[in-house]
């Protein structure tokens, strides 16, 4: 997968991804394996499945989503810093807290989560 510097789209072997709209621009080549929406974003797009053809088991997907929910709960339960003056600073603070929470996950889950390193390496 690589990012086109002119369009901002991510190109894979079979289709293009639009990060602004969080959607693929063409149908999923694996068909309905990941659900009914053939254009939906896939949670594991950080090079775990570069061809876009592998399906996750329901148990594994449920476990991953549970871990992500725990991260979201941790971030939301943190005290909001009162000295932030702009929405950009608030977003930056939440981003930092999310990254710190993700780093606590076991290594086997990191391949399913888009983190700053996977975005920047695209």
Automatic annotation (TrEMBL):
<dbReference type="InterPro" id="IPR022385">
    <property type="entry name" value="Rhs_assc_core"/>
</dbReference>
<protein>
    <submittedName>
        <fullName>Peptidase C39, bacteriocin processing</fullName>
    </submittedName>
</protein>
């Amino acid at each position: 997968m690589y990012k086109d510097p002119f369009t901002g789209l991510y190109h894979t072997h079979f289709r293009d991804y639009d990060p602004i709209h969080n959607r693929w621009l063409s149908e999923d080549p694996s068909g309905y394996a990941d659900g009914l929406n053939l254009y939906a974003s896939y949670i594991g797009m950080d090079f775990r499945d570069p061809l876009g053809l592998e399906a996750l088991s329901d148990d594994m997907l449920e476990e991953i989503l549970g871990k992500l929910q725990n991260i979201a709960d941790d971030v939301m339960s943190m005290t909001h810093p009162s000295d932030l003056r702009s929405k950009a600073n608030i977003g930056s603070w939440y981003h930092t807290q999310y990254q710190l929470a993700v780093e606590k996950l076991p290594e086997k889950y990191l391949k399913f989560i888009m983190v700053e390193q996977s975005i920047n390496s695209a």
